[in-house]
Amino acid sequence: MNNLRILVLLSLVVFVTSHQATTLKFTQLLIRKYSSSSTLGKKGFQHLYNDLIQDVGAEQQGEHVPMAGLPVPEPEGHSDHHSMELFHNSANYSTNVTCLNPGIIFDHFQVNSTFDASILTSVLPLVVVNIRNCRLLESESGEIMIHTKSRPSTGEVWGYGIGFAVLISLISNLGALLAPIMDTKCFKHLLMFLVSMAVGTLVATALLVLIPEALNLLVYDGLSEEYISKMSTVCAALLFFFLSERTIKSLVESSRNNKKTSKEIIIKAEDTNDDLLKELNDVEVNGDSDVVDSHHGHAHYDKTSVVSTVAYIIVVGDGLHKFVDGLSVGAAFSENLLTGMTVAVAMICEEIAHEIGDIAILLHSGMSMKRALFCNCIAAVFCFLGVAVGIVLGETTSANHWIFAIAGGIFLYVSLVDMLPEMGMAAETAVRNNSSPVFVTCLQLTGLVVGFCVIYLVAAYVGEIQL
After folding, report:
1. Residues 6 or more apart from 371 whose CB is under 8 A from it?
2. Mean pLDDT of the 152-167 span
């Protein structure tokens, strides 16, 4: 008889264990839909709660609505007994009804600021009871508050999209205002900072906004802290190796300069045969006169041709560039206003740096200011065209996620392949022109950090930003 009891008891243990394992497996699948890790954070739990309450047609906002004198539990210092009391009191809707904010529920049951599968399995019954309590309270008050996570309205999408396209187009002509100071040292330092900031915003936007949107990781209006931390580590690695490279190059350049100014070189120069120098100078003067005369006519012809080609390439390339920018902005605004603004901010930072440089190239190539501005206006038309195409595709198809993927690749390419080497060349040129290498490195590093931090703050606090 005792053996039979033991066998039955063991069978029950096996059954319960198997049942719990199956339950935890489904709970883990649920967690993965709202988190990129094996645990669920507060934002993810709130998104899960919002989805559940949206399905039943209502959402309770505010911290709590106590009924019939039921004490409202404090979020901190919870215990198992207190949590169970909270659950039983909420379930006793015949006498007391409380509609709790999901944040309070999370604070009562969280361990290390997260829910694992076992905790979430225990909390889900309370969530169901709380949703039912909220509906009861809403039916009594006659107020039905429905939380919808719909996309922006058509008017908002077109309004914001066209508005930012106008802003980007106006910024592209900002170089005209800075034309009088383009040859100054201050302008070159400003341009270095703007290019660096553009690199920071483009890389951060690609890693923290566009790629997550393409992978549908922002479907619940927020990224997991783990993803943000890892992508921030990627950006930190870029900053570290940029700083290391600049430091090494500065040391090498300093070493070369010291060798050139050494006493040994000066002594060699002073011991050179004066007759040989005179002979070489005569050859140089005579040779130069011939070359200059023949080369001047040739250069004049080539200069017109080269300038014409460069200007054409810049205008066409700028037009295509603005079309892609507009396409990305339009698709982003059709998905989410905050995503659209984040992408637009990155575009603006990049446009400021690039367009000032383009204006400078066009002016130095002999093009008049009016003609340069006209070319920029022609290129701006492609930005509006891109916005329109992006909005239409985003609202009528599911192509916006593919657009985000393409834009993410373009952002990384432009920032790391195009603009980052440009930063290096600008720094080397500035150092050769007697600028402090420490100042130049700090200036560029500050621009990178500022650009990254702007996008990081948006990505980290996207759940708290309301538009």
Report:
1. 362
2. 86
Element housing 100 (H / E):
strand 99-100
Domain map (residue ranges) of the chain: 34-141, 154-250+310-460
Round to whole Å and give the CA distance between 58 and 135.
7
pLDDT in tens, 236-293: 999 999 888 888 887 777 776 666 555 555 555 555 555 544 554 554 444 444 433 4
Q: Is the pTM of this model over 0.70?
A: no
Question: Which residue reads 């070319």 in tokens?
Answer: 375
Token couple for 6? 């033991």
For residues 441 and 247, is the Cβ–Cβ distance under 8 A?
Answer: yes
| Contact residues for 394 (Cβ-Cβ < 8 A; gap 6+) | 157, 330, 331, 333, 334, 335, 400, 403
Torsion of CA 216, 218, 219, 222, to 10 degrees: 160
- Predicted local confidence at residue 301, as pLDDT: 36
Query: Distance (Å, rounded) from C-alpha 97 to C-alpha 62?
Result: 15
Q: With the C-alpha atoms ordered 78, 84, 87, 93, is the resulting torsion angle positive or negative?
A: negative
Residue-level pLDDT at 233: 92
Phi, psi of 95 (to 5 degrees): -115, -40
User: Across the strands, what pairs with 64?
Assistant: 100
**CA distances from residue 464 to 166, 404, 460, 461 in whole angstroms, order as listed:** 28, 23, 9, 5
Q: Whole-angstrom Cα distance, residue 205 to residue 222? A: 14
Buried/exposed code over 54-64 (b: 16+ C-beta within 10 A; e: otherwise): eeeebbbeeee
Instruction: Please enumerate, as own/partner, the contacts of 67-72 that have beta carbons within 8 Å and a separation of 24 or more.
Output: 67/96, 67/97, 67/98, 67/137, 68/95, 68/96, 68/97, 69/96, 70/96, 70/97, 70/98, 72/98
395 token code pair: 């609202």
Q: Tell me if 171 sits within 8 A of 355, measured CB to CB.
A: yes
